[in-house]
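Fold description:
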Amino acid sequence: MQTTASSPPAVSVSRLAREVKTLLESHFDFVWVEGEISNLARPASGHWYFSLKDDGAQVRCAMFRRANQRLRFTPENGDAVRLRARVSLYEARGDFQLIVEYLEPAGAGALQARFEALRAKLEAEGLFAAERKLPLPAAPAHLGIITSATGAALQDMLTVLRRRCPLIRVSLLPVPVQGVEAAPALCAAIARANRWQESGAACFDALIVGRGGGSLEDLWAFNEESVARAIADSALPVVSAVGHETDITIADLVADQRAPTPSAAAELLSPDQADWRLRLAQLDEALTRSMARQLRDAGRELAHLRARLKHPGTLLRERAQRLDDLEGRLARAQASAFQREHRRLDRLTERLLRRDPRPRLARLGDRLDDAEHRLRQAMSHGLVRRQERLSRLAALLDSLSPLATLGRGYAILTDESGAILRRARDTSVGDAVGARLAEGRLALRVEGVERVEEDDR
């Protein structure tokens, strides 16, 4: 049909229905509605269709199978219910309708009432008491995560762990996190992790139990009494990470530690590798200072021994010179290694500053870890070799000391003042003298002196 120039433009029925549907769905978020069920139909598809009415009006409702399977009761015609739904329009018939996501008996809220009752019961039993909670490990090596294998919460936790401490081993114990099967699966997973720990099949430092956010009914598995008691009975520390920061579940109250989100749980249990690097750098600096101090002390001791030891002087000087050379080579090798790695670190830092660090941060972090690991290995191996060489030289020096001579049966005589006696004429009959042997000392008295004239030598 043609329109005249004065006729207003017309739209098709389909377009009008589509625009009305868009307007309704964009204007309304989830709404809670209370009323009485009528005309309930449950076709073979598993979806539910019914009307919700009160004294003044009624509205068509559709509850699809994925939503109604999570309910813990089956509604009937005439039931007074409270439901959460999205406002929409069924375009094919132009019917205003509600897409129901959750449904419960009307009243104060059955789930909230159950929550408060269980909370009071477990609190009276002392399951929330701080003294029964286990401490969390300071530096865990192996974490068990009990959550859905396909949920975003798992990926969030893995991302945080990879960023903060990629050395932590993670074992996933996959479970459904909502629906009627969730609570038994959570209990079984917690028990299984403890059995593995007890038998030695696994060595967990802590468990994370949780999921992403959702409504009270979505999170209800973590409000079940069986799950709360499984967490309380766990010999492993349990961190509860359920929903968002504003979501509080029974599992949060019973767990040894509550994290406001799954990501926060991963952050709570993972030391920051940047802190570790700083600590390693501080330890490295302290080790360097200790090595230098020990080398200085060894040098002073060597100088002291060199001054006291008169024989064999030539060999001692050669060994001392060799020791000094080794000390210098060790210091130069260490300085060279530090300079080389510092230059390499400077180059990497300069390249990082020239580029956007976000796409390459993980890769550069791995390279830096590898460089630090090789540097520590090189330093460790170098120190071991030089310590072994220093031990051999010290043993050789010890074999040339006067104490070794005493071990072969000689003795060192001293007068009463402790001065070493080298000539018989330095004593007189009746003088008290001391003799130092390889093991112990003797107190002697001179009974005769045989002097050797200079010409008799």
User: Anything to note?
Assistant: The two ends are 148 Å apart (CA to CA).
